[in-house]
Structure formats: C-alpha cells, structure tokens
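Budget justification note: compute hours in this period were largely spent on complex prediction jobs such as the one shown. Inputs:
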Amino acid sequence: MKDKVRVAVVGGSGYTGGELLRILVTHPKTEISVITSREYAGKPVSLIHPNLRGLISLNFTNFSIDKISDKADAIFLALPHGVSLNYAPKLLDLGLTVVDLSADFRLKNPELYKIWYNYEHPYPDLLDKAVYGLPELHYEELKNAKLIASPGCNATATILALAPIVATKITDEKKFISDVKVGSSEGGAKPSEGSHHPERQNAIRPYEAEGHRHAAEAEQELSRIAKANISVSIVPHAVSSIRGALASAHTWLTNELEEIEIWKKIAEFYRGKRFIRIIRGNIHPYPDPKFVIGSNFADIGFAVEKRISRLTTFSAIDNLMKGAAGQAVQAFNISMGFNEDDGLKLVPLRPA
Amino acid sequence: MKDKVRVAVVGGSGYTGGELLRILVTHPKTEISVITSREYAGKPVSLIHPNLRGLISLNFTNFSIDKISDKADAIFLALPHGVSLNYAPKLLDLGLTVVDLSADFRLKNPELYKIWYNYEHPYPDLLDKAVYGLPELHYEELKNAKLIASPGCNATATILALAPIVATKITDEKKFISDVKVGSSEGGAKPSEGSHHPERQNAIRPYEAEGHRHAAEAEQELSRIAKANISVSIVPHAVSSIRGALASAHTWLTNELEEIEIWKKIAEFYRGKRFIRIIRGNIHPYPDPKFVIGSNFADIGFAVEKRISRLTTFSAIDNLMKGAAGQAVQAFNISMGFNEDDGLKLVPLRPA
Amino acid sequence: MKDKVRVAVVGGSGYTGGELLRILVTHPKTEISVITSREYAGKPVSLIHPNLRGLISLNFTNFSIDKISDKADAIFLALPHGVSLNYAPKLLDLGLTVVDLSADFRLKNPELYKIWYNYEHPYPDLLDKAVYGLPELHYEELKNAKLIASPGCNATATILALAPIVATKITDEKKFISDVKVGSSEGGAKPSEGSHHPERQNAIRPYEAEGHRHAAEAEQELSRIAKANISVSIVPHAVSSIRGALASAHTWLTNELEEIEIWKKIAEFYRGKRFIRIIRGNIHPYPDPKFVIGSNFADIGFAVEKRISRLTTFSAIDNLMKGAAGQAVQAFNISMGFNEDDGLKLVPLRPA
Amino acid sequence: MKDKVRVAVVGGSGYTGGELLRILVTHPKTEISVITSREYAGKPVSLIHPNLRGLISLNFTNFSIDKISDKADAIFLALPHGVSLNYAPKLLDLGLTVVDLSADFRLKNPELYKIWYNYEHPYPDLLDKAVYGLPELHYEELKNAKLIASPGCNATATILALAPIVATKITDEKKFISDVKVGSSEGGAKPSEGSHHPERQNAIRPYEAEGHRHAAEAEQELSRIAKANISVSIVPHAVSSIRGALASAHTWLTNELEEIEIWKKIAEFYRGKRFIRIIRGNIHPYPDPKFVIGSNFADIGFAVEKRISRLTTFSAIDNLMKGAAGQAVQAFNISMGFNEDDGLKLVPLRPA
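Corresponding output:
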C-alpha cells in the first residue's frame, strides 16, 4: 500500500508547472515522482526554478507516456493548448487521474473549439467526461473525476465575479463586460517582445481586446448557472504586477436593490466555500489581488452606482494560484477524496 | 514692453505644480516669476523638486494676492478643490489670466457642486464665464479666455475616449462605462496609507467605485457634444505605474459598423488636433499610456467585439501632462494667442 | 498540559508583526493568543492585514503587561527601538520567553548604545543574558534562551555574507564594505515622504550612508567569529522591490585563492544549516532576493575579480523573513526545542 | 548652404537609437535624414517607437555605406560591439563626423581589446584619432573631432563619481569599487530570459560580477586624470527601474578630511560643467537617478564614514541619456561648434 499518491507534472519548467511544484512539494498526501520538460530534460529542476533549490532534487525528464503509469498515479498537464488533448485518452486508459491546465477539455460544445481555438476537437466524447475544474461550481462532479479541465485565469476571475449575479438574475443578461487587469506572469515563462521588462513595466496595455478566448468558457459556465444564454465580453489589460488578476465585471441592474441585498445574494451563493472571501470593509473596501498573492483565495466584492443602476462586481485572484495551479490542486484534492485545502494552506504574503 | 508673459504658479510644491514648472521653465514666451507654497515658503524650489536643480533658482513664497499683479500677468492655481474659488474673483479683477487646475470652475450647473463636491458654489456667475479647458472641444472659446477651468485627468481620459462616439451617436447612450487605470502620481504628492510604497506597488485597486466625481464634468461635456443627456460611470483603478491613465470606455453599438467606419468617425472628429494621435497598428494596436509619458499627447484607439456589439474606445494620457499641467499650458497658450504647443514640444520617453 | 505554546505578538499591526502572524497562523506548535496594537486596539486584525481575512478572527488589543502571563507563554516584541527594553525585564520575571525584534538587546557592549542609538541602556546586565538570534552563529546558546535579540535585516544580510570570510581570514580585515540594496517594506508600515509611491518607485537611493547603525551588531558578530576587531561599513540603498535585501560585501583577498577553494570555505562554514543555500550555477550564478521571497532562506554566493584581488560575497534574504519575522521564529523554535523549521516550511514564490 | 546638419542614425530600432531620435527630433541644428535598421527596413520608424508617432514620418532603411555621404553629414552608430569598427574608416574617408556608441574606439591601447572584448582591433591607428566622448574630461579635444567614441553607461557613472577623487589623490589608489545599480533599459531592446518581465521585475541581481568590461575604459580615463595607474572594480546589479544608473564608488581616505573640503574638491573639479550637478542637501542628500530621468544631467554627491575613513562618491545618470544618447549628442554638439546643450535642454521628469 502506498502512503502517498505519486504525481507527475508534465511541462514543469513553465510558471504554472513551477507553481504546481511549489504547492506539491509540501502537500501532505502527494509525492512528486516525475517532472518533465522537453527543453530542460536531464537538468536539475532547481536550475530553472531557483526558488526550489534544496527542496526538489529531481531532474527534468522527457515525457514518456508509455512508462508514466509505472511512476505516477495522477498527472498534471501544464502544456500549451492543442497538446494535452493528444495525451489525455491514453493517460485515462492507463488509469491515471488527469488534471489538464490547458483549454483542451474546458468546453462542452466541440463546435466552439473551431470558433475560438481554430482546431477540430479529436475527442468530443471526452468533453462530456471532463469536469470543469472550478470547485465552487462543480464540487460534486469533481468527486472521483478522472479528467479535470482546469479553468483559465481570466475565465476564473470573470466567472467568480459574475456567477452570483447571473444566478440571481438581477441584471441585464446581455451586457456583461469583464474588464480584467492582469500581471505579467499570466503570459508564461517564455520571453517575447511584449514581455521584455522595459516594454512591460509601466504598461497599461489592452490585449486580445476584440474577443478574448476565455469568454467561451465563461459564457458556458455562466449560462449553465443562469439557465439562460449569457453573453460576456472579456477585455484584458496587462498592468505592471507580476502576479494577480482583477476582474471588474460591469453590469446594469434591472431593479433597484440595496447594497445589503446584493451582499446577501453574493454571500449566500458562496456560503461555505473554502477559498472565497467576501469583501466589504472600510479600509480596503474592494478586492485587490495584492491581498491574495501566493494563496488560493478569491476575494469577491462589489460597488453600485445607484443613480445609473450600474453594478460592478470585482474578483481578485493570484493568476498562478486560483487562476491556475492552486485551483488545479484544489480540484485534484476533491477528486482524490483529500481535504480540499491539502497543500493549499498557503497564507497570502503582505506586503507583496 | 515686456518680452515674456510673467506667470505665477500657486501651489508649486505638489506634482501638478512641479509639472507646470517643468513645462514653463523651457516655455519660449513665459517667465516664471512667482512660485508659492504655504508649506515650503522661503525654501528653494529645487529642494522639493530635485529634478529642477540648476534650472530654477527661485524660492517658494507665500501667496500674497494683493501684490500678485505687480509680479505676474497670468496665474496657474494648482490648489485643492474649494480653495481656488476664493481667489479667482479678485485675480480676475486684477486683470490676470487665471488657469485653475481644481474642479472649482469646471461645472456649469451650480447645483452639481452640492451633489458631487458637497459645497454651495459662491460664484455661480463665474461658472458661465469660465471655459472648460479641453482645447479639443473648446478651442474657439479659449481664445482670450480669462478664466480657464482645467479638466480632471480621469475626466479628460474619459471624454477624449467617448467624444467621437457620442458625437456620432453609434451606441447606446445610457450605458457608458469608463473603466480607468491610473498611476500613483494622480493622487498627488501628499503621503497616505494607500500611497505607501509597499501598499501601492502591485496594487490593482478599485477606488471611488460607487460614483467618481469626474463623471459630473464628463457627462456635462459629452451631453453638450451629443446634444442629449449622456450618462457615464467612471470606475477608476489604481495600478502600479507612477504616470499614466488609460480609459477603457465600454459601450454597446446600436448598429453594425465596420471597423474602418468607426476609425473614420474618430479620425474625422479629431482631424487637425495637435495632441491627438489615432492608434491603429499591428505591433501596438491599442493606446498605452507608456507611449505618451512626459508629453501632452492623448492616444486614442478602439476595439470591437462584433458577435456581441461591444465597442471599447481607449484613451491613453500622461495624467500629469494631458491630464493636468500640460493641458493647462495648452489652454493657456490658446488664450494668450501663442502657438498651441509652445513649451509642449516634449517628446514622450521610451522606454519609461 | 497544554497542547500548544500560546504566543503573543506585541506591535501586531506593522509589517514585522503581520509577518509573524502569517507564519504563526500555520505553525504546528503555537497558538496565537494575543495581538496588540495601540493604534488599532478593538479592531479586527484582518482589517489591517487583509491577507489574513478568514484566517485570524482576533481583534487587536492594548498591551497589558500585567495580564500577559495569563494569556501567553512566549511573546514577540515587534516594537520600535527604545520601547522593548522597558518591557523585557518584567516579561522575563513573569516567566515568558521573550523574542525582541528591536535593537534593544542586540549589542553586548552598553557603550555602543550611546554611540549608535543615542540612549543609555538601562539594563546592561540583560545584554549579557540576551542571545543574538542568528541561529547559524548561536544555535547552542539559543537552546532554552529566555531573551532572544533578533538581528536587524541589513545586519543579517551583511553578517551572513561575511561570516565565512572573516572566519577563514582570507581578506583584508579593515576594509569591508557591505553595499546593501533593500526593498521598501524594510522601512515599516508607516507612510512617509520617502515611502510615498511616486517617490519610492524607481528610486535607487542611498540612505544612512554615513554610518548605518546595523554596522554595530555586524562588527560585534564578525569580530567574535574572527577573534579580531573587524570593521565594516554598511551602505544601504533603497531600490524598487517591496521585499528583499541583497548585501554585496566587497573585500580584498590577501592571498590568491582559486574559486573552488573559496566555495569550499563558505560551504564548510554553513554545512548543515537548514536555511542557508550556497549558490553557484550557470543560469543564476549569484544570489538574488527574488528567489527567496516569502521564505526564510538566505542564499549565499560570491564573485572574484582575480586581476585586482577583489572578492565580493553576496547574501540574499527576504527582509521580513530571514531579515525579521522568519528568523525570529527560527530562533524561537530552537529555544523551545521545536524543529528549527516549524512554521517555516514556506517555499519561496516564483515569479514574485 | 545648408541650414541644418543632416544626421543619420544607424541602428535606429534599439533603445539607444530611439533615444537619439527623441533628442534629435527637436534639435535646433540637425535634420534626421536617415534611420537604418536591418530588421525593420521598410517599416515606419513610429511602428517600433510608438512614442514618436506623429513626430517622425521616415521609414527605416537598410544601411548603405556607399550612398550615405549623399544623405548625411554626420552619423551616429548605435551598433553592437565589433560592428562599428568595420564602418568607421570608410565613413571618415567620406568626410562624415562619426559618433560611435559602441566600445570599438574607446580604448587607446589595442591590447586591451583582446583582453576585454576578445578581438584583435583591426584599426589601431584610429584608436589614437578617436576622442573619448566624455565632455567633462575631453572638451577641448572634442572640438572638431571627427571620430567620437561615446562612453559606456556604467563607465560614465563610475568615471564621473571617481574623477574628482583620483584627481585630488585623497584616497587609496588601488582599492576602488564601483557598485553600480542599473535599470533594465541598459540591456537593450532585445528580449532575453533575464529581461522577461516576471524575471526582471523585483530582481536585485548581480551580473558580470567577476570583471565588468567597462572597467577597462574607466581605468584608462581615471589613470589619465590621476597620472598614475588606477585600478577599479565595477560590480553591476540589475534593479527594477527601467531607466537610471547609480554608481556607489567606495574608496578609503588616506587622510582625514572634513566634508566641506571634499565638497570643495568635487565642486572645483566640475566647475562650469553644464550637465553636472553637485548634490548636498537635507531632504535628498545623495544623488538618485530618479531625479535625472529623461535628461542629460549627472548628479554627483558623496558620503563619508569618518570612524573608518570610508568615502563613497555617488553618481546618478539616466543610462540612455548621459549614459548613452544624450552624452553622444553633447559630444557631437561640441565637435560641430554648436551649443553644448542644443537638443539637450530636457528637464528631468518628476515623479517618474
């Protein structure tokens, strides 16, 4: 009998992979058995992730799907879109629990992959089996899930901000705008012109402003909750932080509501959720990703401008945690029957 | 006969005051004759503004309204709201040209001061005489203007983003949201809990999210252009930059429009405007305040998400320049019959 | 029999206090029983430390020394210099273990308090009893210590960089310069002109450059190791980070030494030290505080310029962790007979 | 007769090239006639430098040395080391004034190129003709100079900090350490792993710490001033700013000197220098690059720790201005008989 679940991290040299390692290295019920990287195979993991010096002594290996089941019981795929889908069927056949952090299994409707991702999905049947790994919405389904499609970060921020609103149907259902501000780690570990420090620092730069892909999964999830077709436009902006994403979800109230009523609807919706914190205070009245850095929390709050019936809900996350690796481990924990917060009792840094 | 117009800067120790000095010290047609500061009277200006070491040898003085006309022909008031209004009438009587950078003369309707600023305006007649100092909208009125009410920075960003849209009536007129992201210099030179570096850096922090005051002047100006009542909600967010403000003005198109048509409407609206640059490109497709830092430019651009008829117009400014001191000098230049860009041929820094 | 040691944090609203709480809230063998703040007494701790929302439900209280022994077994004093010394004698009499994070008990020679801190030390006998809380140098003395004087951050960085060098006597003993670069959190939570975000961000600002106080404790500790009088000049510089301190300790080799020999001397000196990591690599060849953020690690490395016999040793710490709260808990753990890393198995964030 | 000197900028797409354009576009006596870029030939300059939108309408071209004399009277070479040297002889033959911003003509001793730059210099005779373009040291030689070797940024900062010290021989001549802190723009416009925003922001990262190349030119210039062999070790550190370099030059006084005497020696050395500002004040007592951003100023100051005879001189520059493009234009102005500050009356931004 094994003491610990052996986990593999595929794509371990990127930021999401690195964040998975940061979490899993102190997870009480897992043992990191394999860390793959095509680019750095054979090199020490801590060479690429100097934060892990002295904590992980493994080297990166090439990903060998044939031997993976000898070494791992569960596998996290931190790979680009369009790559994971080639591995998932076999990994499932081998009996591994698969947590995929790409978009490859997030959408239920295969047609949407053509529209938003420019490819024909080769395994549409797996889309039905995959569970969208947002535990606040899919807790029960995640139990014993074998294929978890971990949400995108801007989608997570947007969905968490809007879910209580669409569930309670207090706003115009066709006019949701999620204006998202994100740190630079969201773009991954690969350098580019736009991520070059002198270009990226001090930028307040809209990007993918004409139709951000995460709208597809956000609409899927919000429509499910609303039991209606929800349209949402996500407009992301690169700002100077490294970690953090704030969604400012602007909507229009259809009826007058007191603030306390809105507060109650949101609080009720998220009652008992381990990683949701509802913000309402006088010193720090709104969510700010600064206060969740390093943790799996999502802070949710709102503001109303009554004279024109504008409601904005805010959600603040650490894009690498609740927006990626943290949420993946949270969903994994549920699927394995662990405590939801195993490995995730990480307290946000302050100041950071 | 004087060679140069003598100008006084009242409230010269703050950031807006300092930025006026940075501009005026190389302005070809002005001479800085008086710089006041209650707090630093008697001390060298360059003690507080070390960037001006070797460039300005004046000391700060106390503001003495009785003697000001001996020393200055024009005066810039960089004072808090509710202070300038006490000085303006006398300064006008003394024959000075007054450029007020506070909100005290921006609104035409005195009732709005009660609602938005919590005071009864003591000189409602002056509100009629004051010219709202946004030269792109009020060029003709600014000629020979004696009292210029220089716009707020978030208002400037919002108005410049939305003016061509409301002028051409292509969107829903009741649902404008200007989601603004601003640098820390917008809060002024006085330290506070929220501006403390460890608190402010990496923040993505909504503030005044339930009714930002600049909405009042933005609605006034946009309604004038639209010849209709325009409602706009301004939701500002503090981000990590020092300088820069980006307004992302989200609206809903009422008719299908090709991008080129939208581009033409915006370009036509701003044709010939010295400090407006229309952005449409493949490497940097949208405005970013990063590319106007240190200059008086406002970069304007847009994005359309056709499937849901969402139009976002962006405007990017340096909040201390086009959002404050630069715009004030631009309006002053017009009022004095100078070239619109005297003292303002400042090229944006890159990278910055 | 108590399950957990009850700990009080006095001065809990500052950054060091907050960092102690971040650590102690997940410490397996302690229970936070009292958190004091003169300024915020009666208010929820999470109001001031929003990162701790949902994690700590205590309110701040006023510090009442008379009742403290009913509530706490150990006490952390996160107070300004000159304040702790008034409380320590009574707290010791009451039987509490005292961990003082101020400078009040760091120096053995009471004369030095007059020179460096401008006060006459009222309890010179306690200076003998206090243990300087740098576990890498005082591990044995810390066992059962009742009064721990936790080191200053710039002193910690300087001592850790130079200890192996002075121990092995390979350099000129009179010419040590520790050029330190530090983040803004080192200045504490109280806003000031210099910490105002627009002033502090992008600063590369020398401060206390004519005799930094931490030299006193660094010289005390380094002289003890060297068994000789060591002089060291600490020249700190404020840079843009929030967390992190790097000491670049410049020295002059008295004999030619191969790099491998220097490496061995440093590695030998720190053999078996839980929180020291010796850095020597090709991608990240020198220590950088970036890779220890959020953790108690100190990364140590060096560079030699042979042609002129210059040796620089570098040490990188998180100033709030190994430079303050983390080191305090580390020393506390040793004094209590706990594992040295209880509560400190915190993995550095990356990227951060 | 030409009204303006026609200038070409070769390598116009990088940061130094861009900064030259920012300066030259408002220079009263030059006309930018050619801007070359191998990578972007045919594309608008403002596509790569969005700050220059509306200010420069030229496209980049390929560099054609044969036709350059038809189009330009002077040429700025903003090219990598080892490239300029191939063009310079022909350009000089063609009668152009050549300002080279690489290291290719900075060193007088050709042997040093083998040691520090790993190449044999093909035109050692030109090294004699080239003038090291630091106007504070070579003003007279720069008049009518045809080949100007513009200094490196870390060398400029180091030389300016140490020149008055070595000239007056008040310190140990063998033990100079210039601990330099620099912003990210110093690394140029090309992205790399180390310049990736999530890696570079918040870094306090030593680099080239075992023998920085700029020591060669610094030692050449300082030895010339001292009329003695000066050794200096330059240890650069990457910090979070975009622009700015601070050299903290640590030295050991050989005699006791009052601060006022040191101040006088420095002030005397730099008397009448247009771009040098000597810093001595109570609010901002030391130089900080923050206060020269965007300008050609170098701020010089110092600190003494008398008890151990340590003297640190500081120099603060904008690495793209006084450290590169600004200084190049300053030297060019002198060579052409223009005012030293033509095009350089740029006031530092504050805050920035």
